[in-house]
Design brief:
single chain, about 130 residues, alpha+beta, Ribosomal Protein S8, Chain: A, domain 1, 2 domains, 3-stranded antiparallel beta sheet, 6 helices, about 15% strand, globular
Length: about 130
């Protein structure tokens, strides 16, 4: 199933750990260690089950760029950098949540997902203010 296709995607860390574990036939702890040490964040998967486990939400580059413009994500980053508090966002759906996380990751931000009665909440953490 080698398509030679390389894509930049944003996935939940738990899905990445399970996929690495499945692909390499190693424990989840070993997969976690492997992921942490991989500074390039480039992972290759050949096993269909590993790819399916990634649970990727797909979007085109144009769709991603339109999203960034529409949501003014750079403004959010500046607000977070100048604030001592974390910013909370309530994306309208999972795809929007993943695109936010993807954009923020590209700028060095970590994100966390919190499930609550009101739906999923994306928390943007400013690690430089701690």
């Amino acid at each position: 199933m080698n398509t030679n296709l390389i894509r930049e995607v944003c996935v939940l860390s738990s899905d990445l750990i399970y996929s690495i574990s499945e692909e390499k036939k190693i424990t989840h702890f070993e997969a976690f260690e492997l992921a942490i040490k991989n500074e390039s964040m480039y992972f290759e998967f050949k096993n269909v089950k590993s790819l399916e486990r990634l649970n990727m939400i797909t979007y085109s580059k144009d769709e991603f760029n339109n999203f960034k413009r529409k949501k003014r994500v750079k403004k959010l980053i500046v607000k977070t950098l100048t604030s001592k508090q974390s910013e909370k966002l309530f994306p309208k759906d999972e795809k929007e949540q993943i695109m936010f996380a993807h954009f923020l990751f590209n700028f060095g931000f970590l994100t966390a997902i919190n499930e609550c009665f009101g739906g999923q909440e994306l928390i943007v953490i400013n690690s430089t203010s701690e």
